[in-house]
Amino acid sequence: xxDVIPEPAQPEGHIRHFSVLLSxxxxxxxxxxxxxxxxxxxxxxxxxxxxHVVAELANNAATHGRVPGRNFALLLYVVGxxxxxEVTDTRGxxxxxxxxxxxxxxxxxxxxxxxxxxxxxxVTRGSHPRKTxxxxxxxxxxxxxxxxxxxxxxxxxxxxxxxxxxxxxxTPPLPPAGQTHSRE
Length: 184
Known about the structure:
Strand content: 15-25%
Largest sheet: 5 strands, antiparallel
Number of helices: 3
Radius of gyration: 21 Å
Strand order of the largest sheet: 1-2-3-5-4
């Protein structure tokens, strides 16, 4: 395992990012992978290694970092030629360590896989009770997103300026008192 490494200084310039809060459940972990894959696709970045890393980190957050009622956060950002994946959970008391899995054991392989796929990875303690497990993947030439492409907003979708005015949304009328809507 890598030692805890201080956060890199944030360079000036264009930084593409995507973040989302998810429930610490198997469904939340699956959604993290699906959302990350779609975001990376929209940025024109390679998917395979990053999708595996997101899946493992999100699964660990949902399994080992789970605190009922507290979400975990997924953050993706690209700076220069590096994709950084961060997963933050609220179990800062449980720091991850790679384990050598037993021959038939189907678990305990997640961080070993992250270690193999990522160029760098580590753990950063956050404000109590949080911790962030992060991984960095170097993007090859031609894999960095275009610097002039539209930036992503909090949902990861490209921001678009409205081009036309939309009709106001109208709610359906309520039935007269004492009656209910028909289900037919």
